[in-house]
Design a protein that fits this description.
Blueprint (H helix, E strand, L loop, with lengths): L1 H24 L21 H8 L3 H12 L3 H9 L2
Helix pairs in contact: 1-3, 2-3, 3-4
Protein name: Large ribosomal subunit protein bL12 C-terminal domain-containing protein
GO biological process, one term: translation
GO molecular function: structural constituent of ribosome
Length: 83
């Protein structure tokens, strides 16, 4: 389970980097598998974070939420605890 969480986190970060690079060089960004996933839940919580939290991996969910949103530790913990 931890390996899966790590893999999803790495994929999300790589997708984010490709999007940023595409924007900077003015090239259309490819569509990723996560782009066709269900939309984020109410409040803007990414689906990957929700999946980690619901799988009982709160620490990984908090870390991923912080990486994806730039939120502080307290805010990320409150969001994950609320899921």
């Amino acid at each position: 389970m931890i390996e899966d969480a790590h893999l999803y986190r790495r994929l999300a970060l790589l997708e984010q980097q490709v999007r940023l690079l595409s924007e900077r060089v003015g090239v259309e960004c490819p569509i990723f598998g996560s782009d066709t996933a269900p939309a984020p839940l109410e409040g803007g919580v990414p689906a990957e974070v929700v999946a980690l939290a619901r799988a009982g991996n709160a620490i990984a969910a908090i870390k991923l939420f912080r990486e994806m949103t730039g939120a502080g530790l307290r805010e990320a913990k409150e969001v994950v605890d609320s899921l």
